[in-house]
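Hey Z.,

So I finally got round to the magnesium ion thing we talked about over coffee. Here's the setup:
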Amino acid sequence: MIEARGITRTYHSRGAFTGERTVHALRGVDFTLPKGGAVAFIGESGCGKTTLGKILTGIETFDGGELVVDGVELSKLSPRKRAPYFRRIQMIHQDPYSALNPTRTIEQILGDPLRMRAKETGGASSASGVRARASELLELVGLEPDGVLPKYPHQLSGGQRQRVVIARALTVDPEVLIADEAVSMIDVSMRLGILALLHDLRERLGISLVFITHDVATARYVGEGAELHVIYRGQVIESGLTDDVIQGPVHPYTQCLLSAIPIMRGLEEPGPDRLAPLAPLDEKVATDGCLFAPRCPFATERCTAERPVLEAMGESGQLHACFHPTARRVVGVEIAQAAV
Ligand SMILES: Nc1ncnc2c1ncn2[C@@H]1O[C@H](COP(=O)(O)OP(=O)(O)OP(=O)(O)O)[C@@H](O)[C@H]1O
Ligand SMILES: [Mg+2]
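And the result:
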Protein backbone atom coordinates (compact mmCIF):
# COMPACT_ATOMS: atom_id res chain seq x y z
CA MET A 1 0.00 0.00 0.00
CA ILE A 2 2.71 2.52 1.01
CA GLU A 3 6.38 2.23 0.29
CA ALA A 4 8.64 4.99 1.57
CA ARG A 5 12.23 5.09 0.40
CA GLY A 6 14.76 7.44 1.89
CA ILE A 7 12.27 10.14 2.93
CA THR A 8 14.13 13.29 3.96
CA ARG A 9 12.83 16.57 5.36
CA THR A 10 15.02 19.44 6.48
CA TYR A 11 13.69 22.66 7.96
CA HIS A 12 15.57 25.93 7.77
CA SER A 13 14.27 28.54 10.12
CA ARG A 14 15.42 31.91 11.36
CA GLY A 15 14.38 33.09 14.81
CA ALA A 16 15.03 36.37 16.61
CA PHE A 17 16.66 34.54 19.52
CA THR A 18 17.81 31.29 18.01
CA GLY A 19 19.39 32.72 14.83
CA GLU A 20 19.55 30.53 11.76
CA ARG A 21 18.66 26.94 12.47
CA THR A 22 18.67 23.81 10.39
CA VAL A 23 16.65 20.89 11.66
CA HIS A 24 16.98 17.51 10.04
CA ALA A 25 13.50 16.31 10.90
CA LEU A 26 13.84 13.14 8.79
CA ARG A 27 17.05 11.69 7.42
CA GLY A 28 16.20 9.01 4.92
CA VAL A 29 13.37 6.94 6.36
CA ASP A 30 12.44 3.66 4.62
CA PHE A 31 9.45 1.50 5.42
CA THR A 32 6.75 -0.59 3.83
CA LEU A 33 3.12 -0.73 4.89
CA PRO A 34 1.27 -3.68 3.36
CA LYS A 35 -2.47 -3.52 2.62
CA GLY A 36 -4.34 -4.15 5.86
CA GLY A 37 -1.05 -4.22 7.76
CA ALA A 38 0.36 -2.05 10.49
CA VAL A 39 3.59 -0.30 11.21
CA ALA A 40 4.63 1.60 14.33
CA PHE A 41 7.10 4.43 14.83
CA ILE A 42 8.46 5.18 18.23
CA GLY A 43 10.84 7.85 19.49
CA GLU A 44 11.13 10.77 21.86
CA SER A 45 9.74 14.27 21.35
CA GLY A 46 11.14 16.09 18.33
CA CYS A 47 12.50 13.00 16.56
CA GLY A 48 10.32 13.61 13.47
CA LYS A 49 7.28 11.41 14.07
CA THR A 50 4.63 14.03 13.28
CA THR A 51 6.62 15.27 10.28
CA LEU A 52 6.50 11.75 8.88
CA GLY A 53 2.74 11.51 9.50
CA LYS A 54 2.17 14.84 7.77
CA ILE A 55 4.26 13.80 4.78
CA LEU A 56 2.25 10.59 4.45
CA THR A 57 -1.01 12.56 4.40
CA GLY A 58 0.29 15.22 1.99
CA ILE A 59 0.06 18.07 4.55
CA GLU A 60 3.84 18.41 4.50
CA THR A 61 6.27 18.12 1.61
CA PHE A 62 9.49 16.14 1.63
CA ASP A 63 12.75 17.14 0.02
CA GLY A 64 14.31 13.78 -0.73
CA GLY A 65 13.32 10.17 -1.32
CA GLU A 66 10.31 8.49 -2.84
CA LEU A 67 6.80 7.89 -1.59
CA VAL A 68 5.01 5.15 -3.47
CA VAL A 69 1.28 4.63 -2.84
CA ASP A 70 -0.39 1.71 -4.61
CA GLY A 71 2.58 1.43 -6.94
CA VAL A 72 2.53 5.12 -7.96
CA GLU A 73 5.45 7.39 -7.09
CA LEU A 74 3.72 10.53 -5.83
CA SER A 75 6.45 13.15 -6.23
CA LYS A 76 6.25 12.66 -9.99
CA LEU A 77 2.57 13.68 -10.04
CA SER A 78 1.10 17.18 -10.07
CA PRO A 79 -0.55 18.28 -6.80
CA ARG A 80 -3.99 17.75 -8.36
CA LYS A 81 -3.23 14.20 -9.44
CA ARG A 82 -1.62 13.46 -6.08
CA ALA A 83 -4.67 14.54 -4.04
CA PRO A 84 -6.79 11.39 -4.52
CA TYR A 85 -3.90 9.22 -3.27
CA PHE A 86 -3.47 11.32 -0.16
CA ARG A 87 -7.22 11.25 0.49
CA ARG A 88 -6.94 7.51 1.08
CA ILE A 89 -4.57 8.26 3.94
CA GLN A 90 -6.17 10.02 6.90
CA MET A 91 -4.50 11.27 10.04
CA ILE A 92 -5.86 11.15 13.58
CA HIS A 93 -4.16 13.82 15.62
CA GLN A 94 -2.92 13.79 19.14
CA ASP A 95 -5.36 16.34 20.52
CA PRO A 96 -9.05 15.42 20.32
CA TYR A 97 -9.87 18.73 22.07
CA SER A 98 -8.71 21.02 19.28
CA ALA A 99 -9.47 18.68 16.37
CA LEU A 100 -13.22 19.33 16.37
CA ASN A 101 -14.89 22.68 15.65
CA PRO A 102 -16.53 23.68 18.97
CA THR A 103 -19.37 25.61 17.30
CA ARG A 104 -20.73 22.67 15.29
CA THR A 105 -22.67 19.62 16.36
CA ILE A 106 -21.32 16.14 15.70
CA GLU A 107 -23.99 15.74 13.02
CA GLN A 108 -22.66 18.83 11.21
CA ILE A 109 -19.03 17.79 11.74
CA LEU A 110 -19.64 14.42 10.08
CA GLY A 111 -22.23 15.75 7.60
CA ASP A 112 -19.92 18.06 5.61
CA PRO A 113 -17.32 15.48 4.56
CA LEU A 114 -20.07 12.87 4.03
CA ARG A 115 -21.94 15.16 1.58
CA MET A 116 -18.70 15.85 -0.28
CA ARG A 117 -17.93 12.16 -0.40
CA ALA A 118 -21.48 11.40 -1.65
CA LYS A 119 -21.02 13.87 -4.52
CA GLU A 120 -17.77 12.18 -5.53
CA THR A 121 -19.07 8.66 -5.39
CA GLY A 122 -22.69 9.30 -6.45
CA GLY A 123 -23.95 8.10 -3.06
CA ALA A 124 -26.96 9.44 -1.13
CA SER A 125 -26.44 13.15 -0.36
CA SER A 126 -29.95 13.77 1.01
CA ALA A 127 -30.22 14.84 4.65
CA SER A 128 -31.57 11.44 5.67
CA GLY A 129 -28.93 9.56 3.66
CA VAL A 130 -26.12 11.56 5.25
CA ARG A 131 -27.60 11.13 8.71
CA ALA A 132 -27.89 7.38 8.22
CA ARG A 133 -24.25 7.13 7.14
CA ALA A 134 -23.14 9.33 10.08
CA SER A 135 -25.03 7.03 12.46
CA GLU A 136 -23.44 4.00 10.87
CA LEU A 137 -19.95 5.46 11.34
CA LEU A 138 -20.65 6.41 14.96
CA GLU A 139 -21.80 2.87 15.66
CA LEU A 140 -18.67 1.57 14.00
CA VAL A 141 -16.50 3.58 16.41
CA GLY A 142 -18.52 2.42 19.41
CA LEU A 143 -20.74 5.47 20.01
CA GLU A 144 -24.49 5.59 20.36
CA PRO A 145 -25.62 7.75 17.37
CA ASP A 146 -28.87 9.23 18.72
CA GLY A 147 -27.17 10.46 21.86
CA VAL A 148 -24.07 11.81 20.13
CA LEU A 149 -25.29 13.39 16.84
CA PRO A 150 -26.99 16.50 18.37
CA LYS A 151 -24.15 17.16 20.82
CA TYR A 152 -21.33 19.71 20.59
CA PRO A 153 -17.73 18.51 21.11
CA HIS A 154 -17.48 20.05 24.61
CA GLN A 155 -20.37 17.85 25.74
CA LEU A 156 -18.32 14.72 25.07
CA SER A 157 -15.47 13.12 27.01
CA GLY A 158 -11.94 13.00 25.57
CA GLY A 159 -12.35 9.35 24.62
CA GLN A 160 -15.70 10.02 22.90
CA ARG A 161 -14.21 12.96 21.00
CA GLN A 162 -11.34 10.86 19.78
CA ARG A 163 -13.90 8.32 18.54
CA VAL A 164 -15.70 11.14 16.68
CA VAL A 165 -12.34 12.20 15.18
CA ILE A 166 -11.86 8.62 13.99
CA ALA A 167 -15.42 8.53 12.59
CA ARG A 168 -14.71 11.75 10.69
CA ALA A 169 -11.54 10.24 9.24
CA LEU A 170 -13.65 7.27 8.10
CA THR A 171 -16.11 9.52 6.17
CA VAL A 172 -13.81 9.46 3.13
CA ASP A 173 -13.40 5.64 3.17
CA PRO A 174 -9.65 5.75 3.86
CA GLU A 175 -7.37 2.79 3.28
CA VAL A 176 -4.76 3.97 5.77
CA LEU A 177 -5.16 5.64 9.15
CA ILE A 178 -2.22 7.45 10.68
CA ALA A 179 -2.62 7.62 14.44
CA ASP A 180 -0.22 10.26 15.73
CA GLU A 181 -0.06 9.92 19.51
CA ALA A 182 -3.78 9.20 19.20
CA VAL A 183 -4.17 8.16 22.81
CA SER A 184 -1.56 10.25 24.59
CA MET A 185 -4.02 12.99 25.62
CA ILE A 186 -6.78 10.63 26.64
CA ASP A 187 -7.51 9.44 30.13
CA VAL A 188 -5.57 6.24 30.76
CA SER A 189 -8.77 4.31 31.46
CA MET A 190 -10.06 5.02 27.95
CA ARG A 191 -6.84 4.44 26.06
CA LEU A 192 -7.23 0.73 25.74
CA GLY A 193 -10.70 1.23 24.24
CA ILE A 194 -9.36 3.49 21.49
CA LEU A 195 -6.43 1.14 20.81
CA ALA A 196 -8.85 -1.79 20.59
CA LEU A 197 -11.01 0.24 18.18
CA LEU A 198 -8.04 0.90 15.87
CA HIS A 199 -7.20 -2.78 16.02
CA ASP A 200 -10.79 -3.64 15.22
CA LEU A 201 -10.98 -1.24 12.24
CA ARG A 202 -7.91 -2.93 10.87
CA GLU A 203 -9.47 -6.36 11.19
CA ARG A 204 -13.03 -5.53 10.13
CA LEU A 205 -12.46 -2.94 7.40
CA GLY A 206 -8.95 -3.97 6.34
CA ILE A 207 -7.65 -0.47 7.04
CA SER A 208 -3.87 -0.24 7.33
CA LEU A 209 -2.47 1.52 10.33
CA VAL A 210 0.56 3.74 10.89
CA PHE A 211 0.91 4.09 14.60
CA ILE A 212 3.08 6.90 15.92
CA THR A 213 3.91 7.05 19.61
CA HIS A 214 6.54 7.73 22.25
CA ASP A 215 5.12 4.99 24.41
CA VAL A 216 6.39 1.43 24.15
CA ALA A 217 3.32 -0.13 25.76
CA THR A 218 0.95 1.35 23.16
CA ALA A 219 3.35 0.53 20.30
CA ARG A 220 3.24 -3.05 21.42
CA TYR A 221 -0.52 -3.09 21.28
CA VAL A 222 -0.63 -2.28 17.57
CA GLY A 223 -0.55 -5.89 16.65
CA GLU A 224 1.30 -9.06 16.07
CA GLY A 225 3.30 -9.16 12.93
CA ALA A 226 3.60 -5.35 12.81
CA GLU A 227 6.95 -3.75 12.18
CA LEU A 228 8.31 -1.32 14.72
CA HIS A 229 10.73 1.44 13.72
CA VAL A 230 12.65 3.33 16.38
CA ILE A 231 13.50 6.88 15.29
CA TYR A 232 16.26 8.96 16.77
CA ARG A 233 16.68 12.55 15.53
CA GLY A 234 15.11 11.74 12.19
CA GLN A 235 16.96 8.49 11.57
CA VAL A 236 15.53 5.00 12.00
CA ILE A 237 18.11 3.38 14.26
CA GLU A 238 16.41 0.04 14.87
CA SER A 239 13.57 -1.82 13.24
CA GLY A 240 12.04 -5.25 13.15
CA LEU A 241 8.97 -7.13 14.29
CA THR A 242 7.53 -5.31 17.31
CA ASP A 243 7.99 -8.22 19.69
CA ASP A 244 11.55 -8.91 18.52
CA VAL A 245 12.57 -5.29 19.05
CA ILE A 246 10.87 -4.95 22.42
CA GLN A 247 12.10 -8.26 23.75
CA GLY A 248 15.57 -8.09 22.24
CA PRO A 249 16.56 -4.48 21.55
CA VAL A 250 20.16 -4.24 20.34
CA HIS A 251 20.60 -0.50 19.85
CA PRO A 252 21.55 1.36 23.06
CA TYR A 253 18.90 4.03 22.33
CA THR A 254 16.13 1.44 22.10
CA GLN A 255 17.44 -0.08 25.31
CA CYS A 256 17.32 3.34 26.99
CA LEU A 257 13.78 3.92 25.73
CA LEU A 258 12.67 0.57 27.11
CA SER A 259 14.45 0.92 30.42
CA ALA A 260 12.84 4.35 30.87
CA ILE A 261 9.35 2.86 31.08
CA PRO A 262 8.89 2.24 34.79
CA ILE A 263 9.63 5.51 36.51
CA MET A 264 10.22 3.92 39.89
CA ARG A 265 12.94 1.73 38.48
CA GLY A 266 14.42 4.67 36.63
CA LEU A 267 15.22 6.18 40.01
CA GLU A 268 17.54 3.32 40.86
CA GLU A 269 21.26 3.92 40.47
CA PRO A 270 22.53 2.82 37.05
CA GLY A 271 24.56 -0.34 37.56
CA PRO A 272 26.95 -2.15 35.23
CA ASP A 273 24.03 -3.98 33.62
CA ARG A 274 21.77 -0.98 33.53
CA LEU A 275 21.86 2.01 31.21
CA ALA A 276 21.91 5.48 32.64
CA PRO A 277 18.86 7.65 31.87
CA LEU A 278 19.22 9.72 28.71
CA ALA A 279 20.99 13.02 29.10
CA PRO A 280 19.14 16.08 27.73
CA LEU A 281 19.41 16.45 23.99
CA ASP A 282 21.46 19.27 22.55
CA GLU A 283 20.06 19.86 19.06
CA LYS A 284 22.98 22.09 18.12
CA VAL A 285 25.53 19.28 18.23
CA ALA A 286 26.25 18.55 14.59
CA THR A 287 28.15 15.39 13.93
CA ASP A 288 29.31 13.17 11.09
CA GLY A 289 29.20 10.28 13.49
CA CYS A 290 26.42 8.37 15.15
CA LEU A 291 23.65 10.78 16.15
CA PHE A 292 23.25 9.00 19.45
CA ALA A 293 26.99 8.98 20.30
CA PRO A 294 26.91 12.14 22.50
CA ARG A 295 24.41 10.39 24.80
CA CYS A 296 25.59 6.83 24.40
CA PRO A 297 27.38 5.10 27.27
CA PHE A 298 29.08 2.71 24.82
CA ALA A 299 30.32 5.24 22.23
CA THR A 300 33.85 4.80 20.92
CA GLU A 301 36.04 6.93 18.67
CA ARG A 302 34.59 5.29 15.60
CA CYS A 303 31.07 6.28 16.69
CA THR A 304 31.96 9.96 16.77
CA ALA A 305 33.66 9.85 13.35
CA GLU A 306 31.38 7.67 11.25
CA ARG A 307 27.60 7.31 11.03
CA PRO A 308 26.31 3.74 11.21
CA VAL A 309 23.59 2.73 8.76
CA LEU A 310 20.91 0.09 9.23
CA GLU A 311 22.18 -3.45 8.92
CA ALA A 312 20.82 -6.86 9.73
CA MET A 313 21.41 -8.63 13.01
CA GLY A 314 21.01 -12.38 12.92
CA GLU A 315 18.29 -13.98 10.85
CA SER A 316 15.21 -12.42 12.37
CA GLY A 317 15.24 -9.48 9.97
CA GLN A 318 15.86 -7.08 12.83
CA LEU A 319 17.91 -4.09 11.69
CA HIS A 320 20.04 -1.70 13.70
CA ALA A 321 22.32 1.25 13.05
CA CYS A 322 25.00 0.74 15.70
CA PHE A 323 28.66 -0.28 15.69
CA HIS A 324 28.25 -2.04 19.03
CA PRO A 325 24.96 -3.89 18.91
CA THR A 326 24.64 -6.09 21.94
CA ALA A 327 21.71 -7.68 23.60
CA ARG A 328 21.98 -6.01 27.01
CA ARG A 329 19.68 -6.69 29.85
CA VAL A 330 16.97 -4.07 29.89
CA VAL A 331 15.06 -3.37 33.04
CA GLY A 332 11.44 -2.63 32.44
CA VAL A 333 10.62 -4.90 29.53
CA GLU A 334 8.59 -7.13 31.80
CA ILE A 335 6.66 -4.05 32.89
CA ALA A 336 6.02 -3.06 29.26
CA GLN A 337 4.57 -6.49 28.68
CA ALA A 338 2.45 -6.38 31.78
CA ALA A 339 1.00 -3.00 30.79
CA VAL A 340 -0.83 -4.29 27.72
N1 LIG B 1 7.41 23.79 10.25
C1 LIG B 1 8.56 23.59 10.90
N2 LIG B 1 9.57 24.49 10.84
C2 LIG B 1 10.73 24.30 11.48
N3 LIG B 1 11.02 23.21 12.21
C3 LIG B 1 10.06 22.27 12.33
C4 LIG B 1 8.77 22.41 11.68
N4 LIG B 1 8.03 21.32 11.97
C5 LIG B 1 8.79 20.53 12.75
N5 LIG B 1 10.01 21.11 12.97
C6 LIG B 1 11.11 20.52 13.74
O1 LIG B 1 11.34 19.20 13.26
C7 LIG B 1 11.65 18.32 14.33
C8 LIG B 1 10.68 17.16 14.32
O2 LIG B 1 9.38 17.64 14.67
P1 LIG B 1 8.13 16.66 14.85
O3 LIG B 1 6.95 17.51 15.15
O4 LIG B 1 8.04 15.80 13.65
O5 LIG B 1 8.55 15.82 16.11
P2 LIG B 1 7.72 14.70 16.91
O6 LIG B 1 8.55 13.47 16.91
O7 LIG B 1 6.34 14.60 16.36
O8 LIG B 1 7.69 15.31 18.38
P3 LIG B 1 6.53 15.20 19.51
O9 LIG B 1 6.69 13.83 20.13
O10 LIG B 1 6.89 16.30 20.45
O11 LIG B 1 5.21 15.40 18.84
C9 LIG B 1 11.57 19.15 15.60
O12 LIG B 1 12.90 19.52 15.95
C10 LIG B 1 10.77 20.36 15.22
O13 LIG B 1 11.16 21.48 15.96
MG1 LIG C 1 4.44 14.90 17.21
